[in-house]
């Protein structure tokens, strides 16, 4: 019942923390109330990508003629598509079970609540309460779908991401509120499968955190694929009394009513800070998140918090990196702080979006004199061979020293390409060094080298 490290929550924050802690020789336990792998593996990153893959295969089948093949009419049973996605999630969750065993981490199933004196009480499914003690308690309870007061989720007609991943039948029409990564990915999936989708976004651009040119390009591409997009618009109220949903949407031209079978609320997340004992222990929170210092220590010594629970980017790779940093620091290793300016963000719709670093607007606001280079995928041999020429790569360098300030990409495969920019920026690589780094031909990655060359007037293929 006594551990060096107790981790609460087994998402990509918690389970990665537990593994690194065990590697470092700590006697470690992890507590989970639902399924190993957290939101990411069970209801987030992985099952959404499985759905998007089904949609992409369906799209390719229906476009077989574009590849010189005979015309085929793709067809599917919606429950089977959902079932495949759930199967992928379950397989990944089982993989975490194996990793816990391999690393000799005790898995405790139940709902945890922290107490003073670095104790954790766990209530199992039969209501039995057991108390554990840890030298260090790391809280990684993650987050859930945020509910807006005017958009209460009933789980049937007004739904969150969990229901959108497990609907028993395909809706004929859907309103998606919010066009961040989650909203856009679901909009793309359902639209590709044949649902009539309307996206409502409060901000002037969809995927609002991205570089404006990328947002505008994505909007055009998604509209071309059949998605209706309303920006500068907000859902004021919903009426679910009839057969479907009626949403009153405020626009610059006045209120309009949208009707659909289902409304998906994708307006962000709310951290799971309730009922975990924060108040009893005296751990400080602010705006619904747990406050931590640069080593993830909360306001009470011996208690730490990481992942979606704290006010950093709500991404799986961020949660994992925070957990590793946290336990390495506890171990007394020489640890580097996380550079939150070099975190890649990806949206896996079609075309995909990936970026890292400053947008053009941010770079200018920070006072940089910049060099911008762009390369369209229509000029890429590999993209043309793939039949995926929609998109471009945009790179931003500091004109004075050549520092790579930002990389923004839209197109098939860019979510895998963005790691190059992350590593290069970490190594403080300059624009000229990117141009002189020979990229393999034919690959879409050449577009990064060409975009860098374009910034310096040396581009070859345009
Ligand atoms: C639809 C969707 C798609 C996403 N796609 C991506 C993506 O492509 N890439 C990406 O980087 N991020 C993505 N995310 C975000 C990503 O899932 C989160 O950033 C990540 O899961 C956060 O990890 P975490 O460990 O902080 O928390 P979580 O993954 O939320 O895990 C927290 C765990 O704690 C458990 N828990 C909570 N309270 C208790 C308690 N009291 N006792 C015991 N256990 C408890 C929960 O059951 C859960 O398993 C997506 C999210 C969603 C919703």
From TrEMBL:
Cofactor(s) for this UniProt protein: FAD
EC numbers: 1.8.1.4
Entry's transmembrane regions: none
Cofactor note: Binds 1 FAD per subunit.
Keyword Flavoprotein part of the UniProt annotation: yes
Domain FAD/NAD(P)-binding: residue ranges: 3-323
Single GO molecular function: flavin adenine dinucleotide binding
Domain of life: Bacteria
Positions of FAD binding: 49, 308
Major place of residence: cytoplasm
Disulfide bridge map: 40-45
Entry keyword Transcription: no
Domain Pyridine nucleotide-disulphide oxidoreductase dimerisation: from-to ranges: 343-452
Residues that coordinate or bind NAD(+): 178-185, 201, 268
A GO CC term attached to the entry: cytoplasm
Swiss-Prot/TrEMBL keywords: Cytoplasm, Disulfide bond, FAD, Flavoprotein, NAD, Nucleotide-binding, Oxidoreductase, Redox-active center
Protein name as it appears in the record: Dihydrolipoyl dehydrogenase
Organism: Chryseobacterium taichungense
């Amino acid at each position: 019942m006594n551990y060096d490290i107790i981790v609460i929550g087994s998402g990509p924050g918690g389970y990665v923390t537990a593994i690194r802690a065990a590697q470092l020789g700590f006697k470690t336990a992890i507590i989970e109330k639902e399924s190993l792998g957290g939101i990411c593996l069970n209801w987030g990153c992985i099952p959404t990508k499985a759905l998007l893959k089904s949609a992409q295969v369906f799209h390719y089948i229906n476009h077989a003629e574009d590849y010189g093949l005979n015309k085929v009419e793709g067809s599917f049973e919606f429950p089977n598509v959902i079932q495949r996605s759930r199967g992928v999630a379950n397989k990944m969750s089982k993989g975490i079970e194996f990793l816990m065993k391999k690393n000799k981490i005790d898995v405790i199933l139940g709902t945890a609540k922290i107490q003073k004196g670095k104790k954790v009480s766990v209530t199992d499914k039969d209501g039995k309460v057991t108390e554990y003690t840890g030298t260090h308690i790391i809280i990684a309870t993650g987050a859930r779908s945020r509910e807006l007061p005017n958009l209460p989720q009933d789980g049937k007609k007004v739904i969150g991401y969990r229901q959108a991943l497990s609907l028993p039948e395909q809706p004929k029409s859907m309103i998606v509120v919010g066009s961040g990564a989650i909203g856009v990915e679901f909009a793309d999936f359902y639209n590709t499968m044949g649902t009539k989708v309307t996206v409502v976004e409060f901000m002037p651009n969809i995927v609002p955190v991205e570089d404006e040119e990328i947002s505008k390009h994505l909007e055009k591409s998604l509209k071309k694929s059949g998605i209706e997009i309303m920006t500068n618009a907000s859902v004021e109220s919903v009426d679910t009394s009839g057969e479907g949903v009626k949403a009153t949407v405020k626009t610059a031209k006045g209120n309009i009513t949208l009707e659909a079978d289902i409304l998906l609320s994708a307006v962000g997340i709310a951290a799971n800070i309730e009922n975990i004992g924060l108040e009893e222990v005296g751990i400080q929170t602010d705006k619904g998140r747990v406050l931590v210092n640069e080593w993830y220590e909360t306001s009470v010594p011996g208690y730490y918090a990481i992942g979606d629970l704290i006010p950093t980017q709500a991404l799986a790779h961020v949660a994992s990196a925070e957990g590793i940093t946290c336990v390495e620091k506890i171990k007394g290793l020489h640890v580097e702080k996380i550079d939150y300016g070099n975190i890649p963000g990806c949206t896996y719709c079609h075309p995909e979006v990936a970026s890292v670093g400053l947008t053009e607007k941010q770079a200018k606001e920070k006072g940089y004199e910049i060099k911008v280079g762009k390369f369209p995928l229509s000029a890429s041999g590999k993209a043309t061979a793939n039949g995926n020429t929609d998109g471009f790569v945009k790179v931003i360098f500091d004109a004075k020293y050549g520092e790579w300030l930002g990389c923004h990409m839209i197109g098939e495969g860019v979510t895998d390409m963005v790691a190059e920019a992350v590593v290069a920026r970490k190594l403080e690589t300059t624009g000229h060094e990117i141009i002189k780094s020979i990229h393999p031909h034919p690959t879409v990655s050449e577009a990064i080298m060409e975009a860098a060359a374009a910034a310096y007037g040396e581009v070859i293929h345009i």
